[in-house]
Write a structure and sequence with these properties.
By secondary structure, the chain is α+β, with helices and mostly antiparallel strands. Helices cover 47% and strands 12% of the residues. The radius of gyration is 24 Å and the shape is globular.
Length: 414
């Protein structure tokens, strides 16, 4: 029995009591049902949502991500009001928003932006929780790619951390030795390779698509970007086409690579003495050239919820407050600039200052519900290009043609 059914029964009981001459009481306020993936950070933030309203008002169901996505998809596709608030990552948010399942938050965001200091979220974060020009989710935690580098090796070589892709390549060449790769490269299909390509396409190229979703990653700038990626592989560890986050993390920890692009969530592992041989020797800056991947998770309100949407928005805003996120920083990187700039947190987590800068220069994947399907096409051809199987221009042209065919079949073009 859903909370809606419970309240309907309660209302019937109240009416019966009144008709029988009993004393009428106010009907119970409607419960708010939250469905979320289970992990420590989400347990914390859903607990903050429960604390924002009186006891018993908010129910939370935590489950594995695949089950949660299946439940949310089935419930919302049937336009049921059985779910009020749902956890979504940046990829699933685009799909749910495109399907018309989510409540736009723009008006509430504008109304409460001063009270909850919502301008504290950088533009890159707002972009990642938006679709088609509308905000659909309250950002709760973020993950961004950082540039990891061996500060001791850079100091010995007398070079500064790179700020451009050209400086990055020069440093990789200078620090590359037979026993230590100049840089990690994570090119395992699909996710890892897509993340790496996303950086090059944004830092050197013009991005993935034009305003009408026509591919532009195969234009002159895109060819230059993937050509540089191909050239950079000469400084990567052997087997880089099968390396993802785990392999690249180990290469950095074991001193087998001097630098490279890696997720914020891997930073703490560099200073773990039980796993790392380079404790205190890794440092971080924002990725050279900008444009590295930025991913944000948050909570959205169902379009079909019959609960008070303004009340739910305020509940989400309370959970995402500065105070809440300062405490939540122990579980995940908060997307608020004020928290990332907190000096005490920066002392505790050495990589936070770099993360703050990376948030301002990072870019989310294109706001396209089908981008991961595009990624399967693009990474296949990019890998052929960087390994020399196919010329870069020919590989990207073929990827663009197949991408257009896919998007045309899904009605992206008028």
């Amino acid at each position: 029995m859903t909370s809606k059914h419970v309240n309907a029964v309660a209302a019937t009981a109240i009416a019966t009591a009144v008709l029988a001459g009993g004393t009428a009481v106010a009907p119970a306020q409607e419960q708010i049902r939250i469905v979320s993936h289970r992990q420590p950070a989400l347990e914390y933030y859903t607990g903050q949502m429960q604390a924002a309203l009186p006891d018993g008002r908010v129910t939370v169901e935590l489950m594995p991500i695949d089950r949660q996505m299946e439940l949310a998809s089935i419930t919302m596709s049937s336009q049921s009001d059985a779910i009020d608030v749902v956890y979504l990552n940046d990829t699933s948010l685009k799909r749910f928003a495109a399907n018309g399942w989510l409540e736009p938050l723009d008006e509430l965001w504008e109304e409460y932006k001063d009270e909850y200091n919502l301008d504290d979220f950088p533009a890159s974060v707002i972009d990642s929780v938006s679709y088609d020009g509308h905000i659909y989710s309250m950002p709760i935690m973020t993950n961004t790619e950082l540039f990891f580098y061996r500060s001791d090796l850079f100091e010995e070589a007398g070079i500064e951390p790179p700020t451009t892709m050209e400086e990055y390549m020069a440093a990789a060449a200078q620090l590359d030795t037979p026993r230590r790769a100049g840089t990690i490269m994570s090119l395992k299909p699909v996710d890892a390779a897509l993340n790496e390509a996303h950086w090059y396409i944004n830092a050197i190229g013009d991005g993935w698509f034009d305003e009408e979703w026509r591919p532009i990653f195969n234009n002159e700038a895109g060819v230059e970007a993937i050509t540089m990626m191909k050239e950079m592989t000469q400084y990567a560890p052997r087997g880089f086409t099968s390396h993802a986050n785990d392999e690249s993390t180990i290469n950095l920890q074991q001193g087998l690579a001097a630098m490279g692009l890696q997720w914020f969530t891997r930073a703490a592992a560099m200073d773990n003495p039980e796993q790392s041989r380079v404790v205190g020797q890794i440092d971080w800056v924002a990725p050279p050239g900008g444009g590295a991947r930025l991913a944000n998770d948050g909570f959205a309100i169902s379009k079909f919820s019959s609960a008070d949407k303004e009340e739910m928005f305020r509940m989400l805003a309370e959970a995402a407050s500065e105070e809440s996120m300062r405490e939540g920083a122990q579980y995940a990187m908060p997307p608020r600039l004020s928290v990332l700039e907190d000096e005490e947190l920066a002392k505790q987590y050495r990589w936070y200052p770099a993360a703050r800068r990376a948030l301002e220069t990072g870019k989310a994947f294109p706001a396209m519900p089908d981008f991961l399907d595009v990624g399967e096409i693009v990474t296949r051809h990019i890998l052929q290009a960087v390994t020399g199987e196919v010329e870069v221009k020919a590989a990207l042209d073929q990827a663009a043609a197949e991408t257009e065919e896919l998007l045309r079949s899904r009605d992206y073009y008028k």
